[in-house]
């Protein structure tokens, strides 16, 4: 069955024609679908049309399977189910400027980063744009009692968005559609481990989306130890692609750097990172490593994070330490799904 919630109004008009419905229905159906409602709740449509839609199409492909609220902060970790029985996860984070949703772009991930739980079982499949939008609809549903909505989105859950670029682009255009969720593209960030040709491709779309690069190392030798993508593209080529992205979109790059004890967190590493990024319009996000028991990697102490940060600042590299959120609810990428899969009989 076709997924209607991943279609633009123009495409929906084509579908309406194919079931002998007037084209103005497309606009109504689009606006309902982008509110996250099911066919049954589309109250201004005739019952006969709703039945017709139900027999040929799916409305909302994503359902909430579990939610875990943090006792430490306002973070909510969500496990969702998909029509084919797969599950994915996401996190709702509460910042001073509102609610941010971290969404997944694939079931699992093929990139094999050593520190990441999402990739332990490989990549199962790409998500559709409808399934990415559905995660926002579910989160909005959870926020309804608080009279709040998702205002920012980060594509930082499971999966490598650049390896699912056509559906990610469709998602970006639908999520920012004026008659839909109308989330500003400036409020959306896309995180990549650095699939260089795709960075150029996205840049050429000229969308004002923030690009985050998961760098995690100050040189290729260290990066190759923890990220297989580093065997394919050098840091130099990756940063060149990022500069191109900046030129095309005017958006500064966010550099993600998870501090891993004994690997990339020494004062020398901080100096080397500073030299690497000197003169580049970017901001470094220092991430305390979320411990993944399956991987024998450990984060660093608060003091080490601070001294790494101090070195970057001394070298005039804009940097902050990312707040740890939902540490008590398996906040790290892929952990919740993994536990769910293990518990299934
Ligand atoms: N594939 C994309 C997006 C998903 S990962 C990417 O690589 O950027 C989202 C972010 O979480 C990345 O910066 C990733 O490196 C980071 N991450 C993954 N596992 C982590 C862990 N255990 N601790 C801290 N950050 C982690």
Descriptive report:
The protein starts with a strand and ends with a helix. The strands form three sheets. Strands 3-4-5-6-9-10-11-12-13-14 form a ten-stranded mixed beta sheet. It has helices at 9-18, 24-33, 47-56, 129-143, 165-175, 196-203, 220-226, 235-249, 267-277, 302-314, 335-343; strands at residues 2-3, 57-58, 63-69, 76-81, 87-95, 98-102, 106-108, 123-126, 150-155, 188-192, 210-214, 253-259, 282-288, 319-321. It is α/β, with parallel strands linked by helices. It is 34% helix and 21% strand. The protein has two domains: 2-58, DNA polymerase, domain 1 (Orthogonal Bundle), CATH 1.10.150.530; 63-343, Aldolase class I (TIM Barrel), CATH 3.20.20. The structure holds S-adenosyl-L-homocysteine.
Bound molecules: S-adenosyl-L-homocysteine
The helix content, as a percent range, equals: 25-40%
- Placed side by side, the strands forming the largest sheet appear as 3-4-5-6-9-10-11-12-13-14
Number of strands: 14
The top-level CATH class of the largest domain is Alpha Beta
Question: Helices and strands, in N-to-C order?
Answer: EHHHEEEEEEEHEHEHEHHEHEHEH
What is this structure, in a nutshell?
The protein has eleven helices and 14 strands. By secondary structure, the chain is an alpha/beta fold.
Task: Name a few traits of the molecule.
2 domains, ten-stranded mixed beta sheet, 14 strands, 345 residues, binds S-adenosyl-L-homocysteine, alpha/beta, DNA polymerase, domain 1, TIM Barrel
